[in-house]
Amino acid sequence: MTTAEMLELDRLREEVAQWRARFDASKKRDGYFANSGDAVHPVYTALDSAGDGAALELPGEFPFTRGIHATGYRGKLWTMRQFAGFGTAPETNARYKYLLSHGQTGLSVAFDFPTLMGYDSDHPRSEGEVGKCGVAISSLADMETLFDGIPLDKVSTSMTINGPAVILFAFYVAAAEKQGVDTKQLRGTIQNDILKEYMAQHAWVYPIEPALRLIVDNFEWSAEHIPLWNTISISGYHIREAGATAAQELAFTLADGFTYVERGIARGLDVDDFAPRLSFFWDIHNDFFEEIAKLRAARRIWARHLKDRFGAKDPRSLIMRFHSQTAGVTLTAQQPMNNVVRVAYQAMAAVLGGTQSLHTNSMDETLALPTEQAVQVALRTQQVLAYETGVPSVADPLGGSYYVEALTDKLEREAETLFEQIAEVGGVVRGLETGWLQRKIAESSSRQQWEIEQHRRTIVGVNEFVTEEGELTIPLLKVSAAAEQEQRARMATMRASRDAMLVESRLETLRNASRTDTNLMPYILDCARAYCTLYEIRAAMETVFGAYREPVFF
Amino acid sequence: MLQSLEALIADFEAGKLAALARAVSIVENHRNGYDELMTRLHAKIGRARRLGITGPPGAGKSTVTNLIVQSLRREGLRVGVVAVDPTSPFTGGALLGDRVRMESVALDPGVYIRSMATRGSLGGLSARTAEVADVLDAFGFDRIIIETVGVGQTELDIARTADTTVVVLVPESGDSIQTLKAGVMEIADIFVVNKGDRPGADRLRSDIELMLGLRRGATGNVPAHHGVQLTGLNEKGVGPKSANPMHLARKAAWMDNPEEWTPPVLGTTASKGEGIDILLEAVGRHFRYLEVSGSLKGRRRRRLRNQVTEVVSERVRSRLWEDAETNAWLEAQLDRLELGSVTPFAVADELLRRSGPLLTGVGA
Amino acid sequence: MRPIRVLVAKPGLDGHDRGAKVVAAALRDAGMEVIYTGLHQTPEMIATAAVQEDVDVVGLSILSGAHMTLIPRVLDLLRDDGREDILVTGGGIIPREDMDALEARGTGRLFGPGTPTSELVAYIRAWFDARESQIA
Q: N or C, fewer C-beta in 10 Å, chain C?
């Protein structure tokens, strides 16, 4: 540093110190803390951001803190991708058409719990659960109906499915084949992030190693056959919703990502062959600036690690593309209209953080699946943001803000510390087996609950500003019990009309292949084409892989 | 709704699980009907073999227990499990999470699982646990497994109520042999080092072997450590082809004193289901040893004796300290004590003297 | 007074257990003995556990919308085992009108999201005290 610079630094420090003295002497409330529990200063200045000073960061330039594209949203607005699904395939098909006609630009499939867990709609364990939380898809037939009239080469589809993800993906590809579409044109994502399932969401099927094998099979197969498809959506959303802090969400998610990269490389793939198709999924929680900083830090960390640690050369391997969803856990059942406001702020944070794709929650989702009106408001929230506020005009408009830069650096440091701790535990898989990761999340969750109950954390309408009026009644979506009956009937028809011998032979072939190291995707696809059901395909592999037993950690 | 005791006993004898569960509650809490129930059941107690499983938290005991239960069920035996977890000393509550790890037998009508909390005992936990086991015994279970966590004093007491005690250890719980409390070495009839696929498992097994060898005075020029392969034990609990001097010394010691049981040190990897058959075999051998050596009878007699002494202690405790008059009298002595005009020992003797009728419940 | 015994269970295929674990921890901190069943429980598994453990209360956490099938099934099974005296409570994502229907069917009070755990604790304690004084 030159003498002039040192003098300037001293002058700044003196100025801030004087300001601080005036501040301390004034009347004000104490104790401001970020969501994470760390103290927040009353003001941030150039003295707070680490800043090597020299590096001028720009969007679209390594390490991509300010965004992955130079053109930002001017080049391409974020995709408005509302997660939807309920009842039977025909009902959800109608909802998709509704959303597309209202300006939604990408589809996102929500499956019901039986499907998420790999059970057919007519399996005994599925009783009472069919179609309740998402759409029921038990075979190729259902998938064909789901996208009836929606050309799969013209839309991009995100499917939120994990345990049996490769099976549902096979149904989708087979459905595209039936439409006569060139499957090399298919665009979309399957979530398929099994590590976070063991950690947080708990929608698993197989034990860890076979599950990872299937994921890498998919990396390998899709790179060749479905090159535009995002083979995984490495998720922080569920980890955050389970109670993790922002720093933990950041670190555990990225650690999962690094683990997948390691596994791909261990398979013999070149990192640049599959890394460009890895995508991410973040939660957008309440603390406005912390969330923006988190997304900036995420991009920076991913780029650095992929380059320095994994030797990625292709710039597309270094850029973190991600979808965001506003935080479900922040919504309240009390005074549901307040949720519209929460979601609006969170959506803005997501856009200021540079998300490629966004889902905004509906106001009624603490009570039921959203009604058409509620989902329309959620979609309009994004549209107002996109077209009326001017926010998307400038890439990373908060870049250079002392506070946001300081927070970005801080979160990056915290994440690096957590990476070290995870390495000490033996890595992510080990962390899951020993429960280290789950326990960290449980601790954060308990602490937050305590803070809420101690009124150290305000939730408007719940522990503060409570109204005694009877609950505001808004119309709620009711998934009819008929959906389950209907789905059973559809399945019966399907089972009766398929070639039973072909089904058996394809399943047997898959079972045998599962005992070897071969890539299982082609076998699964063959089963899908023959109208094997979800459970049949899942069970065929389960006889070889076994099922996952939950270790409980508090 | 609440049944009469007679109806409950009738259902119990008819083999109804709901009645068993209720009976266990009565006994566990010494509720109304306790005396009558225990009297009625007493004659039926003594058929079941009791297996104690203990060890530090995280050792995988519940997983091991689950596998043992599955194995016993395959032999057609009915199994009762009592899983004891600690009560929080601050809140008085407890999180009883052992049942969760035995889900594979959750719906098996031949298996009964009961979770118990230690309830911050002032003594009496092991009696309570033994009594619950008695109820299961009387109900007709062939095997009763008592699983406790930790290797503290109360856990050791509980273990003593079992016929065979298995101590499960893991390499990574940070417990090197030196830190294990002395009591553990005494009570263990069988040692199991679980998580055999983790580094340090073999080392821990040989460390335990060494300790056992030392205790039997079979040291001398035993090398510092050896890799120890302990699967496939012969009936004396020693590896058949072992040339390890420690082994041979132990084997010799056993042959000199065939009445002594030498605890085998076994390895399992419960998460993969490995090693359980050998463990059960060792348990079976130990039981036969108990029968043949007459120790079984001795242990049971000791258990019954302990039950009596624990009940006596518990009754004395409650009769004295729950008596308002006694407490008031003691309060009144505090001034004298403070002044130093009388010692606590003297006050104690005086209290005992005046409490005769209170303690015996006779002639107040 | 002996501790209150509560079974906290997650019926059905829903895997979100943050709420159930928060409740289990809160009940323990309130001095109760909590038996946590883990995820993916069928009504049969829940009823069997409740009967074997002779619990006072069964707390069910359901966020999957399957409550109108699963909760009545648990009630029926408990009744078949002669244990309709066990309090069945719980919560999750259950609309008000379904809560009313379930309460009419035989559950105790059901609680929506955002309910402070202290309220749940107070409810269980009051229920237990009232029952104990009836027996006495």
A: C
Sequence-separated (6 or more) residues with CB below 8 Å from residue B310: B123, B124, B126, B127
| C-alpha span between A244 and A246 (Å, rounded) | 7
Given the DSSP bridges, would you call strands A232-235 and A278-284 parallel, antiparallel or unpaired? parallel
- Tell me the nearest-neighbour CA distance from C5 into chain A, angstroms: 19
Please state which CATH class domain C5-135 belongs to: alpha beta
Q: Does A319 share its domain with A446?
A: yes
- Domain residues for the domain of A235 are 72-453
- Would residue B312 count as lying in a domain? no
Q: Is B55 exposed, middle or buried (0-12, 13-18, 19+ CB in 10 A)?
A: buried
Is B81 in the same domain as B110?
yes
pTM: 0.84
* A88, A62 Cβ separation under 8 angstroms: no
Give the minimum alpha-carbon distance from A524 to chain C in angstroms, rounded to a whole number. 24
Tell me whether residues B97 and A552 touch, CB distance under 8 A.
Answer: yes
B10 touches chain C (CB under 8 A): no
Q: Give the nearest chain B residue to C23 (CA atoms).
A: B95
Structural domain contains residue B31:
yes
Inter-chain touch B87–C33, beta carbons under 8 Å: yes
Identify all chain B residues contacting A124, using CB atoms and an 8 Å cutoff. none
> Which residues in chain C (42-101) have CB-CB distances under 8 A to chain A?
42, 64-66, 68-70, 73, 93, 95-96
Q: Is A28 among the domain residues?
A: no
* pLDDT tens-digit profile, chain B (364 residues): 457 889 999 999 999 999 999 999 999 988 888 888 988 998 888 889 999 998 887 788 888 999 999 999 999 999 999 999 888 888 989 999 889 888 888 899 999 999 999 887 555 677 788 899 999 999 999 999 999 876 677 777 777 788 999 999 888 655 555 556 666 777 889 999 998 888 788 888 888 888 777 666 543 333 333 333 333 344 444 444 445 555 555 555 444 444 578 889 999 988 778 899 999 999 999 988 888 887 778 777 877 887 788 778 878 888 888 889 999 999 999 999 999 999 999 999 999 999 888 888 765 4
User: Which subunits have 3 or more CB–CB pairs within 8 Å of chain C?
Assistant: A, B
In-domain check, residue A405: yes
Q: Which residues of A touch B (CB under 8 A)?
A: 549-552, 554
Tell which of C28, C45, C128 to mutate to test the B interface (max B CBs under 10 Å).
C28
For residues B57 and B33, state if they share a domain.
no
Whether the CB-CB separation of A160 and A191 falls below 8 Å is answered with yes
Q: Are strands A278-284 and B79-85 parallel, antiparallel or unpaired?
A: unpaired
To the nearest whole angstrom, how far is the Cα of C54 from the nearest Cα of chain A?
Answer: 22
Nearest CA of chain C to the CA of B229: how many Å?
37
Flag if A554 and B101 touch (Cβ within 8 Å).
no
How far apart (Å, rounded) are the C-alpha atoms in residues A466 and A161? 37
Q: Which domain holds residue B137?
A: 45-293
